Amino acid sequence: MLPIILLSVFGIVLLFMGFLKSKVLLLPATLVFILAALATTFMDWGKTYLYFQNMLLTNNLAILFTTIVLLSAFMVVALSNSFIEDEQAQPAEYYALLLFSLVGAIMMISFENLIMLFVGVEILSVAMYVLAGSDKHSPRSNEAALKYFLMGAFATGIMLFGIALLYGATGTFVVSGIKSYVYTNAYGVSLLLYMGIILLLIGMLFKVSAAPFHFWTPDVYDGTPGLFTAFMSTVVKTAGFAALFRVLSVSFVGVYSFWWGTLAALTCLTLLIGNVTAVYQTSFKRMMAYSSISHAGYLLIGLTALGTQTKQALVFYSLAYSLATISAFGVLLVVSRQRQDTNGVNENFDAFNGLARQNPLLGFVMAVSMLSLAGIPLTAGFWGKFMIFTTAADKGIYWILVFAVLMSTVGIYYYFRVIIAMYFREGAAEPVKVAPFYRYVLIAATILTLVLGLAPGLLEGLV
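C-alpha cells predicted for NADH-quinone oxidoreductase subunit N:
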C-alpha cells in the first residue's frame, strides 16, 4: 500500500517546507505529491494483495475508489491559489492536513480489518475537524468546527461500540471472518451481531450525511471555508460509501434480509429531506449541503439494492458527483470573492446574477455542473443516476425507484435556479477574472463530465 506510505511522508515534508520564506513551492509540491501517490496506486492493478498483517486489501475496486479520491483532492488543491496570495494563511499546514486526510480515506476504502476502518475514519475526521475551523476569525467557521467535532465524536463512539459488539459476536475483526461466521451460523446468529450492524451503520451513515444523521451538514458546510467544503463533500463521501459497500457486501451480505429494510427507509428519508429542504435555501452553499444529503440518498439506493451492478454504479456515480461538485465550488470560490456584499463573501444565489454575460466560461462550467447534479442527459450525472436506478430495478425494488425519480424532479428546480440567475438575470457590470491554471482545472472537470455523459462505457469492465 505504497500510496499510504508516500502520502504520510509527503505530509511531513510539507510541514517542514512551511519554514521556507516563500510559499510559492507549496502548491506545486502538493500537486506533485498527489500525482505521485496516484501513479503508484496503479502498480497493483489487476492483482489482489493483503498488506500490513492482512489489515488492508488492494484490488481493482479499491484502486478505482482511491483514484476518485486522489483525483478529487488534486482538483481541490489546484483551486487553492488564494492561500498563496493570503499573507495570513498557513498553506503548509493546510496542505499537510489534506494529505494526512487522504491517508485516512484510503484506509477506509481498502480496509480488511475493522480496526483499520476505525483508524482510517479517525485520521480523516480529525483532519477535517481542524480544516473546518481553519478560518479562525470567522464565528461561522469556529461554530462549524465545534459542531462537526462534537457530533463526529459521538458518531465515532457509536461506530466503535458497534465494532466491539461485532467482535463479541464473531470473535474477529476481519471482514471475511465475519462473513464466514454469518454463513456458518445462518440460523443462529448472535443478537450482538445485529446490534453491532445497526451501531456500525449509524456511525458510517453520519460520515456520509445520510438522514436522520445529517443535522451537522448544513451548518458545517456553510461555516467551513469553501475549498475545504468541496473536499469534504467529495473525498469524505466517496471514502464513506466505499467503506459502507465493503462491509455490507462482504461481512453482512448473509444477513441482507435484516438490514435492507432499515437502509431502504433511511434512503427515502434522506432523499426527501435533502431535496425538499434544498428548495427553499437562499445560500448556494447551504443548497449544496442539502444537495450532498440528497446524493447520499441516491448512493444508498445502490447499497439497498445490493447486487452485481452495484460496484460499477457506485464508482461511476461517485466520480460524476465529485467532478460536478468540484466545478460548482470552484466557480463559487471565484464569484464569492469578487462579488462581496456587506457581510464579506457573497455565497447567495444572487451572486451568480448575469455571470454568463461577464464570464461565459464560468457560466458554462457552472451550468454543466448543475445539469450533471440534476441528472440531465448528456452529462455524467445522468448515467450515474441511471446506473443507480438500474440496481433497484434489477432487485425488484420499484417503489424506491419511483420515489427517487420523483425526488429527482424536485432537484431539477433548485439546480436550475443557478442557471436562471446566470443567464436570465442582470448582475454586476464588472467581469469576473479567473487565473489561468484555475481555469484549466475547471475546464478539465467540465470536459470529463461531458465525456462521461457522451461515452459512459469508458469505465465499463474496470470493476
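The radius of gyration is 21 Å.
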